[in-house]
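Exercise 3.2. Students should predict the tertiary structure of the chain below and write it as structure tokens, then compare their answer with the key that follows.

Predict this chain's 3D structure.
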Amino acid sequence: MIAFSYTEWVLIYILILLVAILIVFMMERHHNMEIIRDLDEARDDSKKYINDLDNLLSMFTHFQEIGMTHPKTDDLQKLCDLIIEYATDLLDTKMGSLMLVNKSTNMLEIVASRGLSEDIIRSTKMYVGEGIAGRVTQDGKPIYCEDIDKDVRFMRHSNVQYTSKTFISVPLKIKNKVIGALNVNSDKKDRKFNQRDLRLINILADQAAIAIENIQLYNDMKEMYIGTIETLAKAIDAKDPTTRGHTDRVTKYAVEIAQEMNLPEKLIRNIKFASLIHDIGKIGVKDDVLLKPGKLTESEYEDIKKHPLIGEQILAPVEFLTNVAPLVLYHHERYDGNGYLEGLKGEEIPIGARIINVADSFEAMISDRPYSKEMSREAAVKELKDESGKQFDPKVVEAFLRILDKKARQKNKKLEDDYGKSEKKDKVS
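Answer key:
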């Protein structure tokens, strides 16, 4: 047995103490480093959370601009696309969908998406109560799904395998009414959503639902208003047996001309609305003048000439008809500047008004009126050609003549086909 001297024992104790102190120091240092790391992570999380809240605030401001401050007919799709873009960006993914309830079928349909194929978008339709989104819409409560493949609530219409199985679905809810669901998938295998993500998407969905509802209400109001004006315009048509159906025929011609001229879809829509209600101003003209069977006096004609202005005054105060009102106001202007009410000339006249002028005039020519006899189509076409560059815009006339020529050729071909079938039948019999 080795014997240590007093001095040696002192040195051993000091060495043990130093080792113990070193171990405690290392453990404390490790603990401190863990605390620092946790603080760094907490700081990063806080920064991300603050950044997410800043992004949410920016998103809400944008929603308000689109859905509340200036709602427009074609903004609903734009808003839905924006919502799904914001939702997926907020959760750092590129896969998600926004589903709304189709009022006609009471089925949920994808109206905007990110990272989904066209097949999935087209085929995904479900009744309220079916699948995860359907249940969210029915119950008005969010659902967090950890494993899509194993969750029987997730109804999928294809065999697509997602790169991640984490899924959040939250209701688009206004008070007690649910209009759809916002769905977000993680597109990374190691990225799982958490309660913070769920809270963020819920906040986003609540504001998005308000914006969507505002636009839908605006569109419903617009359709109701236009429907009312159309009914009034047709009631004016119906007063006089000679003009019954005039509005519908003018609208058909005007839309065909606009399409033949490859005008933008929005302008074609405005031309359609204006054509449907181009004579709405006649509501302000006395019946004894409007329905007079004989020739009008100069004073009576002046009264009739006021109907475009009356129509414009009815439509102009309505925000969504501000681009329609000028087409009604100027549809009796002439290309050469000799029309009414303002004597506009050539390109000064809106293209929609020039189109309605041709459609309206042609329909009047081939109709029997108290003040003018019905023309044959050939005579009406000749009149269009003679007045091209005078009453009518030459480009509009050319487009309309192409349409009439196509229809004539189609009619002749059908007659020839029918005649050929008849001959074959006679030979067989």
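Discussion points: The chain has two domains: 51-216, 240-420. Residues 51-216 form a domain with the Beta-Lactamase fold (CATH 3.30.450.40).
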